[in-house]
Amino acid sequence: MSFLRDYHVRAYLIAAAWFAADQMTKAWASGTLETTPTIIVVPKVMAFQLGHNTGTMFSLFDSWSEPWRSILLIVFPVLAIFGATLILWKTQRHEIFARFGLALILGGATGNIFDRILHGYVVDFIVWYAGWEPASGWLIDRFGTNRWPTFNVADVGIFCGIALLGIQLLQPTRLTNDIEPVEKETRHAPESD
Predict the structure, then answer these.
(1) H-type helices in the chain, by residue range?
(2) Average pLDDT, the chain
(3) Where are the domains of the chain?
(4) What is the set of active-site residues?
(5) CA geometry: angle at 161 spanning 157 and 165, to 5°?
(6) Closest by alpha carbon to 155, among 87, 85, 107, 103?
(7) How much is the pTM?
(8) Closest alpha carbon to 121 in 79, 61, 162
């Protein structure tokens, strides 16, 4: 199993594991939440509630007509998955945040596109909301709702992956081994006669 020592292979295994976790939780949600519409996880904060998203994140583009919606929601994500795969392969050993972030994005994007191709929609089930009255009233007054759009494990991977890419961008760059560092010149005082 020496192939597991390759840091690229490990990143693709992380992507596969995230995809599997996403699909297992969606299967659980589809089965359990059909009969039990809402499961309160943390009172006044978090619940599980089944949703079918035919749009994209936060149900954007849900109202677009065909074929534009299919092009946007299937072709572009497939191209993005292909691009993320290539970029992941080109990461350097020291780019840990980028590698892990791309793996999460790849696993999450693959999970959502798999749903869209298989069902025609993405299964969402995680709901965050403000049930505490002062916060709830303030949010409804300003945003018209006290609830964050329903999401899933794939979305969590995509969000965290983007955050990790941002952290990687803030890291100082390293020189690779094939570049010789430039030595400082030493200046000597002029010799006097």
Answers:
(1) 7-35, 68-70, 76-89, 96-119, 133-143, 153-170
(2) 86
(3) 15-37+49-127+147-170
(4) 124, 155
(5) 175
(6) 107
(7) 0.80
(8) 61
